[in-house]
Amino acid sequence: AAKEGGKAAWVRFEPRMRQEVVNHARLGSELHNAIIRNELFLMYQPVFDIVTGRLHGAEALVRWKHPVRGFVSPGDFIPVAERSGLIVPLGAWVMREALRQLSVWKAEHGAGAIKAINVNVAVRQLREPGFVDEVASVLAEFGLLPSNLVVEITESSVADGRQVRETLQALHEMGVRLALDDFGTGQSSLSLLRAFPVDVLKLDKSFVDGIADGEDRGRLAVAAAVAQLAEYLGLSAVAEGIESEAQLDRLRDMGYRLGQGFFMAKPLPADEAGMLMAADPVVAKY
Ligand code: C2E
Ligand code: MG
Ligand code: MG
Ligand code: MG
């Protein structure tokens, strides 16, 4: 916004902003210790086939239990980790832990286990030269295949530059699938979808919110268009943030096959997510 209009736009430095900078600095140094102190853990939000009601997969979501602050939301500490570069070791921990957990589920539940785990990866991680080798070695360590992993990236990652593009290409060639997260909110051009080896589009929750509550025509149109786009391009589409049956029904009618949201299941601890897999064939209760 500060660049708009062509003229220099001055932003007043409010005391509140100073407070925020200070908090971020402190949060950053605390986050530094969070990994070694075992304060991070993962929750797993199930992804369902919304046509059959069966469990399809799960997204690993990082949590931080701070000894004093209590639970800190990833919406608060991920941006701090991204700015400081701490996202690189933090993200490496998340990747390893998520794949370790998938290997445990496979051992415990066999064919009932989900086939792949979704892991969010920040652009900072993709810029690290060793990223692809590291993923390959963690997969090998846990006896997993590249097809057991879905890497979730944002649209801005795809537009980042040559090195990141090459990393994404290498992951894809290895057999790791790529999902474009929060799809529809970024500013990437649709032609990126043809230029990049994307496999999954995750419709952002904001468009799902527009469905059935208020029937916002603009957001409804985006939701429907993304389903069509995915179909034409041969990609799979996942609707995120489904909170009601009305939204679920409407998205299914639009052509969504996969869905994720509090209406079906919130992010769960690993053992509870495992219980869904033990109940194979899983038919969701929603
Ligand atoms: P995301 O990747 O788009 O993940 C989906 C977020 O939406 C999660 O929030 C999830 O709990 C929430 N959600 C899912 N269904 C519903 C719903 O029906 N209603 C509502 N209100 N929310 C729903 P969470 O876990 O707080 O994560 C927020 C964001 O933080 C994630 O958005 C992702 O961008 C980032 N994040 C989380 N874990 C990681 C990680 O390990 N690495 C990186 N780089 N980013 C992460
Ligand atoms: Mg995600
Ligand atoms: Mg998302
Ligand atoms: Mg999101």
Protein architecture, described:
Residues 24-281 form the EAL domain. This is Diguanylate cyclase (GGDEF)-like protein. It comes from Paractinoplanes tereljensis. By secondary structure, the chain is of the alpha/beta class. Helices cover 46% and strands 19% of the residues. The protein contains twelve helices and nine strands. The chain has helices at 15-34, 74-84, 87-109, 123-126, 131-141, 155-158, 162-174, 192-195, 205-209, 217-233, 245-254, 270-278, and strands spanning 40-49, 55-66, 70-72, 117-120, 149-153, 177-183, 200-203, 236-240, 258-260. The protein has an eight-stranded mixed β-barrel with strand order 1-2-4-5-6-7-8-9, surrounded by five helices. A hairpin with a 3-residue loop joins β2 (55-66) and β3. The longest helix is centred in the middle third of the chain and has 23 residues, at 87-109. It is globular and about 45 Å long. The protein starts with 14 loop residues before the first helix and ends in an 8-residue tail after the last helix. The relative contact order is 0.13. Residues 1-7 have low confidence and may be disordered. The structure holds ligand C2E and magnesium ion (3 copies). Residues 59, 120, 152, 181 line the site of one magnesium ion.
